[in-house]
Amino acid sequence: MKTRDLLSLFLFTVITITAFSQDNFNINNTKWMKDWTNFSPNKTNYSDYEEQLPNIINKDTYLRSDIVYFISGDVYVTDDATLTIQEGTLIKADTETNTNLIVTRGSKLIADGTKASPIIFTSNKSSNSRKSGDWGGITIIGSGKSNTIEGEGTIKGKFNPLYTIFGGNEIHEETTILRYVRIEYAGKSTNGLSLYALGDTSIVENIMISYSADDSFEWHGGASTSRNLISYKANDDDFDFTQGYRGELINILAVKHPYITSNNGSYAIEVDGYNKNIGFDNSKILSSIDITGATLISLVDDSNYTHTRAAISINNLGELYLNNSHISGFSDVVQLDKTFSTLRMIETAFKLDNSFFNVHREGVVTYNNIENDTFNLLKYNRFTKTFKQPEEIFNAPFDRSNPDFSLKNSLNNYMVVQ
Q1: CA angle 230, 124, 59 (to 5 degrees)
Q2: Which of the residues 57, 245, 306, 383 could staple to 219 if both were Cys, CB 3.0 to 4.6 A apart?
Q3: Would residue 209 count as lying in a domain?
Q4: Is residue 372 part of a domain?
Q5: CATH of the domain at 381
Q6: How far apart are alpha carbons 315 and 98 in whole angstroms?
Q7: Per-residue pLDDT tens over the stretch 150-190
Q8: Rounded to whole angstroms, how far apart are CA atoms 109 and 324?
């Protein structure tokens, strides 16, 4: 598909917004990222570890911030034990083994950091030598709902089968408390943070995942609400949902680099209604996600922007509602797979409100030649008349210490699809 001027592309009447006040479209506030994030983790000097954790934690355990801990191989929290990590604690991961922290079903991880003292999981390598996939990641297994055929499933990865079952009927389980946590250089054979069937009272807030070699965040079932999440330069998807996850995200940031991607390509958001490899129970629910305040950015320039793909991929009857969000640097806003065979199905699957986008192709991609009126999915949202580079859109997207991903100009300066 060739690049075309958006004025002719959308076939809508496009006008410059002057009558609307800026308050009609709230600017996505990125102040929540201040003071606890680190956009240059490879330059950070971390202390050497002092104590190694055992591979089986089967009783309540407390990690103190005055000790630097080391994990090597797969570390399992089992037998309904709770692993509590004090604010400001540093945990370093062995890069010579496939190192993961797995919190098994019935057990619990409480990693409750603060803005001033976040909890950090990172590579054991020295500064300027860390890289994506130095270690595995964190997997948290809950007893909440999933839409697998039997209501349970097995987590991805080569783990001890005694500890890999997820799912159940504990809808309101507080599976975990994660607040002010950074996860750096993970993604070796798994994701930075994998969340399986979390109960809806779980807390996942202010989490930054940097340089994951796989997905940054991945939800399998569950119904939790999360807020203030950052995925920074992941190789694969930034936010991935499957197996009947139904929840809400508030304030998320995905920053993609044009030369950091998986072999199959990657998306800022990928939604699968179910896992097509194992099927689903038709009496159960499909994945459906509400997101308010998303900033999805690909840091492309004039030399490479034509190689980008859509920001969002929706597959296997999944649903996504996106509100008050900014999408920039991608080929399109959304693509939908062959399971969406009618326009009505597409309109049910994806809704975009009160948002802004800067893309260089059609905006909506389908696989069933459903073209007429599909661009109505983007109706009333604002966009750039011609494709713009990141520094034209955002205040300081390339600042290595304190990047600013808020819009440089008022939304009133852009166009609206009517």
Answers
A1: 85
A2: 245
A3: yes
A4: yes
A5: 2.160.20
A6: 30
A7: 899 999 999 999 999 999 999 999 999 999 999 999 999 99
A8: 32
